C-alpha cells in the first residue's frame, strides 16, 4: 500500500483556543483508499495569526513530496530516518522541523492501524492500561491576589474525580531565567498551604514554571516547598542546559519533570542518563511522533523513570498521545488540556472524565472526523 497524495488542513479552533488559534492537520492518502491523520502542533507560537502557519505548511508539503509520496505506508521507520538524516540542515533536531516529522509519523501509524483493523497501541505491544490517569491545570494567575482561593479550586477538582493537578505559582516573566524573590516564594507557600488545608494529601499538585528560574532560585524554591510534597517540579530551569537541571535534581527530594520542549530520543537520552529528570513529559506531537515517543518511553523505562506526556495541542495530537499512554508500562499520568473543539470534531470523542481518559478501541488513532463540523472550521 503506497502513499499517493496528501492535503493540509488549517482548522480554526474555538475559544479558549487550547492548542492555538489555528490548528494545522495533515491527511495522507493511499492507493487502497485508506487515509491517515496527523497534526503539526502549533500552540501559541505559530498560530496567533493565520499567516504565521505558511512556513510550516510549506515545510510539510516539501517533506511529504520528497520523502513520503510513492513510499509504502508501512515503512514508517525508514521514512522517518530518511526525513531526519538525509538533509544536513535537518540532522540536528529542532522545534521547527521535528514537529513536521511528528505529523507525518502520526498519519502513517493511523494508516497502519486502519489497515490492520487495530488501534495503534495494539501494534506497539497492546493495551497495558485500561484507563489513563489524567490531570488538570489550576489557573495560577487567579491566585495572584488571593492565594487562599487555591483551596477552593482544589476541592472542586477533587470533587470532580481528579487525583492530580498542576499549578504555576510563578507566572512567566522575562527575562528567563530569573531570580525568584522571597515574597514570591512566600506567596507560593500560601497557595500550597491553602490546598493542603482544603484537601490534605488527597490531591497531587505539580509545580510548573516554564523554565523560569535560575539554578540557585530553583534550589531555594524546592527547599521551601518540599514540606508540601509537590508531585513534581517541572522545568525548574530552562530545559536547554541539562547539567544545570541535574544540579537542581541533586539538591531536592521533589521529582523533576521535563521534556515538553525536547525532541527525539537523542535529547531525551541525555536528560535521563544525566539524572536531570525522572518524570518525562514527552510531547508526541513535537518529539518526533508515535514511534519516537515509544522509543523515548523505553529509554525512560530502562532508568525506572515514568512518562507524563505534555498536551497543549489539537485533538489529533491528543489522540496520538493516548495511544502511547495506553501501551507504555511506565505511564504515570496524562496532561488533559481539552478545548471545546476536542469534544465536537470527532464522531466519537475521546472520553475525558472523572480524572481519567478511556482509550478508544477503534483502528488507527481511534478517531473519525465529523465532516460537517470540520467543514465549518476549515480556513481556506
Derived structural class: alpha/beta
Number of helices: 14
Rounded to an integer in angstroms, the radius of gyration calculated over CA atoms is: 20 Å
Helix percentage:
25-40%
Largest sheet: 10 strands, mixed
Low-confidence stretches: none
Number of E-type strands: 13
N-to-C SSE string, H for helix and E for strand? EEEHHHHHEHEHEHEHEHEHEHEHEEH
Strand content: 15-25%
Distance from N terminus to C terminus (CA atoms, Å) equals 30 Å
Summarize the structure.
The chain is of the alpha/beta class and 380 residues long.
How is this structure best described in words?
The chain is 39% helix and 15% strand. With 380 residues, the protein is an alpha/beta fold. The strands form two sheets. Strands 4, 5, 6, 7, 8, 9, 10, 11, 12 and 13 form a ten-stranded mixed β-sheet that branches. The radius of gyration is 20 Å and the shape is globular.
Top keywords for this entry?
380 residues, alpha/beta, 10-stranded mixed beta sheet, 3-stranded antiparallel beta sheet, 14 helices, globular
Note the topology.
Layout: E1 3-12, E2 22-30, E3 35-40, H1 54-67, H2 76-85, H3 88-91, H4 98-116, H5 120-123, E4 132-137, H6 149-159, E5 164-167, H7 182-199, E6 204-208, H8 215-225, E7 233-234, H9 242-250, E8 256-258, H10 264-273, E9 279-280, H11 290-302, E10 306-307, H12 315-327, E11 334-335, H13 340-344, E12 351-353, E13 356-358, H14 371-377
Parallel strand pairs: 4-5, 4-11, 5-6, 6-7, 7-8, 8-9, 9-10
Antiparallel strand pairs: 1-2, 2-3, 4-13, 12-13
Amino acid at each position: 500500500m503506497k502513499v499517493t497524495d496528501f492535503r493540509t488542513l488549517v482548522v480554526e479552533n474555538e475559544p479558549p483556543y487550547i492548542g492555538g488559534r489555528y490548528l494545522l492537520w495533515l491527511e495522507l492518502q493511499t492507493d487502497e483508499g485508506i487515509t491517515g491523520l496527523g497534526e503539526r502542533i502549533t500552540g501559541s507560537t505559530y498560530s496567533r495569526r493565520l499567516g504565521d502557519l505558511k512556513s510550516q505548511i510549506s515545510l510539510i508539503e516539501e517533506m511529504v513530496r520528497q520523502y513520503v509520496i510513492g513510499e509504502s505506508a508501512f515503512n514508517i521507520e525508514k521514512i522517518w530516518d530518511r526525513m531526519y538524516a538525509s538533509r544536513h540542515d535537518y540532522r540536528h533536531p529542532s522545534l521547527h522541523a521535528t514537529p513536521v516529522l511528528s505529523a507525518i509519523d502520526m498519519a502513517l501509524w493511523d494508516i497502519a492501524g486502519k489497515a490492520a483493523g487495530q488501534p495503534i497501541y495494539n501494534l506497539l505491544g497492546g493495551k497495558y492500561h485500561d484507563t489513563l490517569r489524567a490531570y488538570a491545570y489550576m489557573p495560577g494567575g487567579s491566585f495572584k491576589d488571593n492565594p487562599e482561593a487555591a483551596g477552593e479550586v482544589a476541592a472542586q477538582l477533587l470533587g470532580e474525580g481528579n487525583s492530580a493537578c498542576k499549578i504555576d505559582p510563578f507566572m512567566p516573566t522575562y527575562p528567563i531565567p530569573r531570580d525568584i524573590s522571597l515574597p514570591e516564594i512566600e506567596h507560593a507557600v500560601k497557595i500550597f498551604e491553602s490546598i493542603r488545608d482544603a484537601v490534605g494529601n488527597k490531591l497531587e499538585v505539580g509545580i510548573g514554571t516554564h523554565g523560569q528560574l535560575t539554578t540557585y532560585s530553583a534550589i531555594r524554591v524546592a527547599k521551601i516547598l518540599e514540606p508540601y510534597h509537590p508531585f513534581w517540579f517541572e522545568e525548574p530551569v530552562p530545559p536547554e542546559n541539562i547539567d544545570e537541571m541535574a544540579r537542581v535534581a541533586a539538591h531536592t527530594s521533589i521529582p523533576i519533570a521535563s521534556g515538553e520542549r525536547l525532541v527525539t530520543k537523542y535529547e531525551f537520552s541525555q536528560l535521563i542518563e544525566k539524572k536531570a529528570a525522572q518524570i518525562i513529559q514527552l510531547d508526541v506531537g513535537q518529539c518526533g511522533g508515535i514511534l519516537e515517543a515509544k522509543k523515548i518511553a523505553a529509554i525512560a523505562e530502562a532508568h525506572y523513570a515514568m512518562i507524563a506526556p505534555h498536551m497543549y495541542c489539537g485533538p489529533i495530537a491528543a489522540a496520538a498521545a493516548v495511544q502511547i499512554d495506553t501501551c507504555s508500562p511506565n505511564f504515570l499520568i496524562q496532561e488533559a488540556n481539552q478545548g471545546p473543539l476536542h469534544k465536537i470534531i470527532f464522531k466519537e470523542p475521546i472520553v475525558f472524565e472523572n480524572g481519567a481518559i478511556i482509550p478508544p478501541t477503534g483502528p488507527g488513532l481511534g478517531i473519525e472526523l465529523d465532516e460537517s463540523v470540520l467543514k465549518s472550521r476549515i480556513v481556506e
